[in-house]
């Protein structure tokens, strides 16, 4: 089952959704990315409540640069607009299952804390430094 490929605009929309979203940054020429497909398909079949998407770094150059993608595959896992996890390299289906299970059971912070690397990624992707939670920018004149 191939992942749905999204562009930057669709990523921005997904990043604001409630629930879990796993994003796979990849490229057609990337051999490990194709091997990773099998593991992602297994996990996606076991977690129908999670949105699984792919971003082709060759087509979405600005988004890949904003996210500072330097290795492929790179995944990010978001929940309710919060970046919970980012890692590069192949993962097994078992590792991904554990990651998702932990994300589903974790409490989200009630307030903004000093951003770490992951939260800085959110700032780069949205053009905002704080808050670390993804929210639409205020309407002009508000």
Question: How would you describe the overall organization of this protein?
Answer:
- With 142 residues, this protein is α/β, with parallel strands linked by helices.
- The protein has one domain: 3-Layer(aba) Sandwich (Glutaredoxin), CATH 3.40.30.
- The protein has five helices and five strands; from the N terminus they run E-H-E-H-E-H-E-E-H-H.
- It has a five-stranded mixed sheet, sandwiched between helices.
- The longest helix has 16 residues.
- It starts with a strand and ends in a 16-residue tail after the last helix.
- The C terminus is likely disordered.
CATH homologous superfamily name? Glutaredoxin
Please mark out the parts with pLDDT under 50 across 5 or more consecutive residues, or reply none: 110-120, 126-140
CATH class: Alpha Beta
Shape: globular
Order of the strands making up the biggest sheet? 1-3-2-4-5
H/E element string?
EHEHEHEEHH
Summarize the structure.
The protein is of the alpha/beta class and 142 residues long.
Helix and strand arrangement:
Elements: E1 4-5, H1 8-14, E2 20-26, H2 31-46, E3 51-56, H3 61-66, E4 74-79, E5 82-88, H4 93-105, H5 117-126
Parallel strand pairs: 1-3, 2-3
Antiparallel strand pairs: 2-4, 4-5
Helix pairs in contact: 2-4
List keywords for this structure.
37% helix; 142 residues; five-stranded mixed beta sheet; globular; Glutaredoxin; disordered C terminus; alpha/beta; 5 helices; single chain; 5 strands
């Amino acid at each position: 089952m191939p992942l749905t490929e999204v562009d930057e605009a669709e990523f921005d929309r997904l990043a604001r959704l409630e629930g879990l979203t796993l994003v796979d940054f990849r490229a057609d020429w990337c051999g490990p990315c194709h091997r990773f497909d099998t593991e992602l398909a297994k996990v996606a079949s076991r977690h129908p409540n999670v949105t699984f998407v792919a971003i082709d770094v060759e087509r979405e150059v600005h988004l890949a640069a904003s996210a500072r993608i330097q290795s492929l595959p790179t995944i990010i896992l978001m929940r309710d607009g919060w970046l919970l996890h980012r890692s590069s390299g192949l993962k097994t289906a078992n590792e991904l299952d554990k990651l998702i299970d932990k994300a589903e059971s974790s409490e989200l912070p009630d307030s903004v804390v000093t951003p770490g690397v992951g939260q800085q990624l959110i700032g780069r992707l949205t053009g905002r430094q704080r808050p670390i939670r993804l929210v639409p920018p205020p309407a002009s004149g508000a």
